[in-house]
């Protein structure tokens, strides 16, 4: 399904391109095996942290980006799409 995102500016297109590429490259190859074996991909989760995805909605003083909730949820949707 084609999704049209309502983004506050073009700089956010890079964020979604990065998240989409990560999901395709790192998540997609692991999904079936992780689901089949009920295994949580801890290393991949750590990579998401290094990428900064896990702290997007949090305050800058805690290492976050203060991204609006609706944009943070769209990032989660992009990851879940895989």
Give a nutshell description of this structure:
The protein has 82 residues and is mainly alpha-helical. It has helices spanning 11-36, 42-51, 69-80.
Attribute tags:
82 residues
Report on the architecture of this protein.
The chain is mainly alpha-helical and 82 residues long. It contains three helices and no strands. It is globular, with a radius of gyration of 13 Å. The two termini are 12 Å apart.
Helix count from the secondary structure assignment: 3
The assembly state of the depicted protein chains is: single chain
Percent range of helical residues: 55-70%
Outline, from the CA principal axes? globular
Q: What proportion of the residues form beta strands (DSSP E)?
A: under 5%
Spell the H/E element sequence: HHH
- Can you give the mean pLDDT? 89
How many whole angstroms does the radius of gyration measure? Answer: 13 Å
Q: Main beta sheet: strand number and arrangement?
A: none
Number of strands: 0
Which segments are poorly predicted (pLDDT under 50) over 5 or more consecutive residues? none
Report the span from N to C terminus.
12 Å
Structural class category: mainly alpha
């Amino acid at each position: 399904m084609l999704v049209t995102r309502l983004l506050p500016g073009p700089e956010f297109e890079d964020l979604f391109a990065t998240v989409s590429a990560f999901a395709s490259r790192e998540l997609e190859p692991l999904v079936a095996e992780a689901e089949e074996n009920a295994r949580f991909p801890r290393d991949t989760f750590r990579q998401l942290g290094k990428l900064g995805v896990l702290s997007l909605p949090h305050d800058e003083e805690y290492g976050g980006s203060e991204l609006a909730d609706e944009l943070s949820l769209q990032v989660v949707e992009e990851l879940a799409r895989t």
